[in-house]
Amino acid sequence: MALREGLRRRLRWRPVHLHGVTLQRDLSRIPLRTKLVSAVLTLVVAALAVISVSSTFVLRPYLVGRMDDQLATMVAGYRTVADNSRDPIFFLTQDYFVAITSVGGVGQVGHYPSLTAADLPHLVRGVDEVNSRLDHPFTTRSDNGTQWRMLIVMPSDQWVLQVAERTNWVDDLTTRLLWSDLLLGSAVLITLAAVGATVVRRSLVPLVEIERTAGAIAAGDLTQRVPEPEPADGRA
Questions:
Q1: Which of 53, 62, 78, 97 has the maximum number of C-beta atoms within 10 A of its C-beta?
Q2: Looking at the whole model, is its pTM more than 0.85?
Q3: What are the residues whose beta carbons fall under 8 Å from the beta carbon of 140, sequence distance 6 or more?
Q4: Domain limits, the chain
């Protein structure tokens, strides 16, 4: 009975956590200078990502605000034109759209000749819809997905002035900013990795010598001595 009980205890299954041990051993094999450089580069990457995203979020509302100011300037100019002429002539680039219509959407529409109906924003029609959008810039889309920033004013009860500007230049500018941050960040990381590896390698030379000496002493070579640190002033 005692022998059988002893065999049961030996053959009893015990859980062994090999994954954590293997991971710990793998991490312990990584050189210290590699860990230090990797940690610094990780912090730099995180900082660059935060700066890039923050600058994009700050820049875009600013550019949209400038666009709203341009639309307000256009409204002031075309209001004067519409008051002085029943058949105004529009001189517009491909990024702008102007419509002088009734509340029902009937009237004159001005845009660049190369723009198709699918490129243009939808006119705001109806009393309720016009009143809900009145004097407040908003973003809208055309049938093909082009984004426009639009402003509607109603100088009188008889006609509505609608002006719009495409937001593609804002998207292009923010995309260029992201690419610039990516390229500049990559250059900074490469430079920092090269410089950091050199500095860390030189700084760890005394530790490497101590490690070698300790290994030799552990192997039985008692003639080895731990190297003494250099004086701070460089004199013995």
A1: 97
A2: no
A3: 121, 122, 147, 148, 150, 164
A4: 56-173
